[in-house]
Write a structure and sequence with these properties.
- The chain has 704 residues and is α/β, with parallel strands linked by helices.
- It folds into 4 domains: 2-173 and 689-699, Rossmann fold (3-Layer(aba) Sandwich), CATH 3.40.50; 182-378 and 583-616, FAD/NAD(P)-binding domain; 381-545, 3-Layer(bba) Sandwich (FAD/NAD(P)-binding domain); 626-683, Alpha-Beta Plaits (2-Layer Sandwich).
- It is 31% helix and 23% strand.
- The protein contains 19 helices and 34 strands.
- It has a 5-stranded parallel sheet with strand order 10-7-6-18-29, sandwiched between helices. Strands 20-27-21-22-23 form a 5-stranded parallel sheet.
- Helix 6 runs antiparallel to helix 19 (688-699) and helix 7 runs parallel beside helix 16.
- The longest helix is centred in the first third of the chain and has 27 residues, at 2-28.
Length: 704
């Protein structure tokens, strides 16, 4: 049986050598590749134990012995931790001593250590792009930990395939592009403001774009913040004022990103400045109106006859057709809601000599060029009325946590006096329903944890205990997740203050039509019995979800998203602020639920990352871009519309049309190369001969 297997291996090796030789010949052909012919390949293979992560499931010695028999392999070695300094030194020394032309490291994911081993390859005197990585940890050892023989066989396959490609790798050289010394932050909540201030303080001119008339975001709607119980506006307002005054920040409220072109260092962004209907002092001065423009006096609001719900107050307080959300807005400029404005002209008359109001104002477009961009587009609440069993928008006294924030806030619609929406009576018994729409796998809610709901519900319980003598808050919870600094202590504090905790999901809520009181039905899983309790008011800690503009904005900037719609970082651990689109970064809750400290920390991280290319003045681009072999290009243009990065265009050359690649925009995805009917597109580092050699090595590799 052993002898039979050996014959198969010998036959397979012969076929693999033939395939490698044929592929090498194809790569060396000037007709097949824009690169110069290569000399005979000499590949070095280095196998990492990764402690027991790999060695615990794979026979390293067997893989090493097998690798030594592969075509073009001139050196094989293994080391306990290949990414360590001694491990990298082995690579450097082998390149110099053996004259290696290619390097293969069989270890972990290239997302983790590809840059590490590229640097080692370069230090050894070899072009860093003559390196190939075989993932035998995440894609092998970790998923086959109970099948040592199978995992070892699969590791041999992975090494053989990597060697086939490494034999054909060519020298590639990164290109540098100049970077505009300006940045843009989209979204001016606490994350966007922090990022903009950090960039501005680093000496970088920054455009801060906000779609609403004022900055501050969701945090400006809060009363207090946990666990310190600081006043939200007391923390936020000075930061808002700093943003409005910062000389390096060009604050553009009531503005949206309309289109994005270009690439890292050279983004051309078109902004749509929505018609506010009111001139700022600078705009009035530009129009020759001396001493004109809005000064926030409010005379116009006083005479406006149109009344609308104020979205800042969650619709619980009115506003006029010409309005500001609250007295602390930045900038302190009124805005006209043209959808409800009847253009009676009373506001124009009341404004007098300031001549700040223009009822015929139209949207304007402005194009700006920036080097890097940060997306901080925030979050919305899950429409909890979809969970019909809890009666939101059906029963008057069922409210969301954000509505509760406005009711309990001193600057809110009731002046900080908590009352029931149905009759204005102060509630004495209040239920807080946690995980309302979060951790919900029914298909209606969200499967993820919204992270900060537990803590703000504890804060709400404290606030009503503090403000209403004799009140009893009940908290219905699945698990209390008090994850941050001093959060667990805050949880204990609320327990000691008298809040009652019932562990179990609320199944449904019913209303007494006469009293408007609510009956909550739930299971108490600690006592293992159902409960039925009457309440004056119920507060739902609704799940959070990506804001309504998130999907549109991410498509403009070419950013990926998770299955839940949150913006996706380049790597959750190694690059949590970056994205797969070079030069675009993420801050705040747009990439997933975060509390305020984590939001501010992510904003500072994003600002730091976004400032690096600007301060360097230029960035290197990985040379994984497509190349057009013009002699083969028929100028059909089919590839142009297929490119997801708009990196291709048809240009006129010597009397005919050929495809041209904007190398800085190309991500080397291969869509164009795979589709081109004439084979005119050469994908650097993923060229057809290299891919074919890998396929042949796998199919002809035989049984190990």
């Amino acid at each position: 049986m052993v002898e039979k297997k050996t014959k198969k291996e010998t036959s397979a090796k012969k076929e693999t050598k033939k395939a490698a030789a044929a592929a090498t010949s194809q790569a060396a052909s000037p007709a097949a590749s824009p690169a110069a012919p290569q000399k005979q390949a000499k590949v070095g293979v280095f196998i990492c134990h990764c402690g027991t992560n790999i060695a615990g499931s794979i026979d390293i010695k067997a893989v090493q012995e097998y690798a030594a028999t592969l075509p073009n392999v001139a050196h094989v070695d293994n080391y306990q931790y290949q990414c360590s300094t001694p491990g990298q030194k082995k690579i450097e020394d082998a390149i110099k001593e053996k004259g290696l032309t290619g390097i293969v490291v069989a270890a972990c994911s290239p997302r983790l250590h590809e840059p590490t081993f590229r640097t080692a390859t370069k230090e050894g005197g070899l072009n860093p792009f003559r390196f190939e990585m075989a993932n035998i940890r995440e894609q092998n050892a970790w998923v086959h930990m109970h099948d040592r023989e199978g995992a070892t066989s699969k590791a041999k396959d992975a090494v053989r395939i990597a060697v086939a490609k490494a034999s054909l790798l060519q020298d590639l050289f990164p290109k540098a592009v100049k970077v505009e010394k300006t940045a843009m932050v989209v979204g001016a909540g606490v994350a966007g403001m922090q990022a903009a201030l950090d960039l501005a303080n680093a000496g970088i001119k920054t455009y801060l774009i906000e779609k609403s008339p004022t900055i501050g975001g969701r945090m400006s709607q809060l009363d207090k913040t946990f666990p310190t119980l600081d006043c939200s506006q007391c923390i936020l307002t000075p930061k808002m004022v700093d943003v409005g005054r910062a000389p390096n920040i060009n604050l553009m409220t009531y503005t949206e990103v309309d289109s994005v072109e270009g690439f890292i260092g050279n983004f051309d962004i078109t902004l749509r400045k929505k018609a506010r209907g009111v001139l700022t002092p600078k705009e009035a001065e530009a129009k020759g109106i001396v001493g004109g423009g809005c000064n926030g006096c409010g005379d116009c609001e006083g005479v406006c006859p149109v009344v609308q719900p104020n979205p800042f107050e969650m619709g619980m307080k009115p506003r006029k057709a010409i309005y500001i959300y609250h007295p602390q807005v930045v900038p302190l400029i009124y805005t006209i809601d043209f959808e409800s404005c009847i253009k009676c002209g009373l506001c124009v008359t009341s404004c007098g000599d300031k001549k700040a109001i223009d009822l015929e104002m139209k949207d304007e477009f402005e194009k700006v060029k920036v080097g890097t961009a940060i997306l901080a587009v925030g979050f919305d609440l899950f429409p909890i009325e979809k969970k019909e069993e809890w009666g939101y928008k059906k029963f008057d006294n069922v409210v969301t946590s954000l509505e509760f924030e406005r009711l309990i806030c001193a600057s809110g619609p009731t002046g900080g006096h908590l009352v029931r929406p149905s009759d204005g009576v102060t509630p004495k018994k209040v239920a807080f329903v946690l995980c309302a729409g979060s951790r919900d796998n029914t298909g209606v809610g969200k499967p993820y944890c919204s992270r900060f709901c537990c803590m703000y519900s504890l804060k709400h319980a404290h606030q009503i205990i503090e403000k209403i003598p004799g009140v009893i808050p009940y908290i219905f919870y699945m698990d209390i997740r008090s994850f941050g600094k001093a959060y667990e202590e805050f949880y204990y504090r609320i327990q000691d203050e008298g809040a009652k905790f019932i562990r179990g999901r609320v199944s449904h809520i019913l209303e007494n039509p006469e009293t408007k009181n609510l009956t909550v039905f739930a299971d108490d899983t600690l006592l293992d019995r159902p409960v039925q309790i009457d309440f004056d008011m119920v507060v739902l800690a609704a799940a959070v979800q990506p804001s309504e503009d998130t999907n549109r904005t991410r498509k403009l900037f070419g950013v990926s998203c998770s299955m839940d719609g949150w913006l996706l970082e380049a790597h959750p651990k190694l690059n949590p602020c970056g994205t797969t689109t070079a030069g675009v970064f993420l801050a705040g809750v747009c990439q997933g639920p975060k509390d305020i400290p984590d939001t501010v920390a992510s904003a500072e991280g994003a600002a730091s990352a976004a400032s690096i290319p600007i301060h360097k003045g230029e960035v290197e681009l990985e040379p994984y871009f497509a190349q057009c072999m013009e002699e083969k290009c028929a100028g059909c243009g089919l590839c142009v519309n297929l490119c997801p990065y708009t990196a291709l265009a048809l240009v006129e050359k010597e009397g005919r049309k050929v495809m041209q690649v904007t190398e800085a925009k190309c991500k080397g995805c291969g869509t164009c190369g795979g589709f081109c009917p004439g084979g005119a597109i050469w994908m650097q580092h993923f060229a057809t001969p290299q891919i074919m050699a890998q396929i042949d090595a796998f199919l002809l590799g035989g049984e190990q």
